[in-house]
Amino acid sequence: MALTGIQIFKLLPKTNCKECGVPTCLAFAMNLASGKAELDACPYVSDEAREQLSAASAPPIRPVALGKGVRSCTTGGETVQYRHEKTFYNPTVFAAQVSSDITPADLEAKLKTWNAFQFERVGLNLRPEMAAVKDVNGDAAAFAATAKTIAETSEFNIVLMSEDADVMKAGIEAAGFKRPLIYAATAENADAFGALAKDNDLPLAVKADSVENLIPLTDKLTGMGLKDLVIDSGAREVKQALEDQIIIRRAALKSGNRSLGFPTITFPCEMASNLDMETAIAAMFVAKYGGIVILSDYTGESIFPLLLERLNIYTDPQRPMTVTPGIYEIGNPDENSPVLVTTNFALTYFIVSGEIEGSKVPCWLIIHDSEGLSVMTAWAAGKFSGDDVGLAIKKCGIMDKVKHTELIIPGYAAAISGDVEEELPGWTITVGPREAAHLPAFLKTK
Predict the structure, then answer these.
(1) Phi and psi of 371, rounded to 5°?
(2) Domain that holds residue 167
(3) CATH code for position 17
(4) Beta strands 93-99 and 130-134: pairing type?
(5) Helix 238-253 to helix 211-223 angle, to the nearest 10 degrees?
(6) Which of 10, 91, 357, 442 is 20 to 30 A from 62, comparing alpha carbons?
(7) 417 & 287 share domain
(8) Taking all residues of the chain, what is their mean pLDDT, rounded to a whole number?
(9) Cis omega (within 30 of 0) on the bond before 184?
């Protein structure tokens, strides 16, 4: 159970040294309790207190690092049941299956296709992270060869899927440098798989036939010294699988059940007969509460909406996505090109810049710091006032880049035009369209 600020304060050195960045140890304790500070910020905390505080402050669902390289990721680490309570931290990880008996030519073609599924959205590169190699015939050499090819020739990290310890050992020897997830330890092979995971320092998935039967398995494996576990309740019927996800999350967060305090792995690929239904089921698990989702394949029409859903759910609801204020060149503008201004809300920027690019009219786009608010909201909140916009134009350096003195402001902020003119004597303030979709036609008339 999490400690209160006062309980944490009792374990601190009480020096009020200010080296942690706040004036008193009590303030630091309150920040620790609310998740706004890290224990490492205190240079004088004792080892005994550190041990107590580290255990108490550990998230109820353990974060588990997966893979190596540019697509390495972390699953788990969540602290709330519902996103609006605080935020979700580590996005659902996507993996697609490859059979161990796939031919080298087919595997090369598949990896090339999968690697192309990278999408830019609000300045972020959205892409799936993993490939799951499934043992289909007990051929250790084929299993290892497939895993090795994926590990050495692609960015994808790997889930190794086999219940045969010898096959799994071959896969680890071939691709262990990529820190693959081992799937799965069961009641029958827990000792052998636990040893493989411990000896190779790899995360281990645990599979049972119910939530209740997961508990003795995870207890046994943690007793062996394993910490990085991922759990699978074994349900492959949609309704039961969803119920299990909710039960596991509640048990970890509400009841403090450390035996179930691990991220989950789910298998839409085993719950549907076609990729369309798989995608719908996967979307359900992104929302509630799959740590890893295994698909039968990646296709653009399937993975793109899943990546967008993931982005929306795992964006902090209390912190708007923003872009850096400043001058943005769109389409190689020159000294005679139009100058526009808008807010630094990421979605506003990418919509506006996209419409400007589509118009084929080179422009200077000035991004004003509105604390991540859209134009209309920022104007209503006083974050996009005439005085502020005028001052931003003076300071940003646009006057050194253009010869004209005309500024185009968003239509939703038409009311600030007079104040901007007062702040920028000699400038002409033009009110642009209210909707970004009308920008191309507006710019072509300028």
Answers:
(1) 60, 35
(2) 64-313
(3) 1.10.15.40
(4) parallel
(5) 50
(6) 10
(7) no
(8) 94
(9) yes
**The pair of three-digit structure tokens given for residue 310, joined into one six-digit string:** 């993931």
Tell me the residue ranges of DSSP E strands in 195-287. 204-207, 229-232, 265-266
How many residues appear in the chain? 446
Write down the residue that tokens 């020096």 correspond to: 15
Based on the fold, state whether residues 213 and 301 are members of the same structural domain: yes
277: tokens are 């239904």
Instruction: Kindly report the CATH number assigned to the domain that includes residue 259.
Output: 3.20.20.20
* Sequence-distant (≥ 6) Cβ neighbours of residue 27 within 8 angstroms: none
Q: Which residues lie below 8 Å from residue 7, measured CB to CB, with a gap of 6+?
A: none
Tens digit of pLDDT for each residue in 383-405?
A: 999 999 999 999 999 999 999 99
Q: pLDDT tens, 341-398? A: 999 999 899 999 999 999 999 999 999 999 999 999 999 999 999 999 999 999 999 9
| 321 found inside a domain | no
Residue with token string 């892409």:
127
298 and 344 share one domain: no
Last residue of a domain, one of 313, 334, 351: 313
For 407, the 3-state DSSP assignment is: strand
CB 343 within 8 A of CB 378: yes
The alpha carbon of 333 is separated from its chain's Cα centroid by a whole number of angstroms, namely 35
Tell me if 430 sits within 8 A of 409, measured CB to CB: yes
CATH number, residue 378: 3.40.50.11600
Q: Which two tokens stand for residue 346?
A: 């990421």
**Mean pLDDT computed over 184-198:** 97
pLDDT tens digits, residue range 256-272?
899 999 999 999 999 99
d(CA 263, CA 78): 9
Query: Where do we find the tokens 């299956």?
Result: 97
Helices (H) and strands (E) in the chain, counts: 16, 17
Contacts of 203 (CB under 8 A, 6+ apart): 64, 65, 66, 179, 181, 182, 197, 228, 229, 230
The number of distinct structural domains making up the chain is 3
In the sheet where 292-295 sits, what is the strand order? 229-232, 204-207, 181-185, 157-161, 130-134, 93-99, 292-295, 265-266
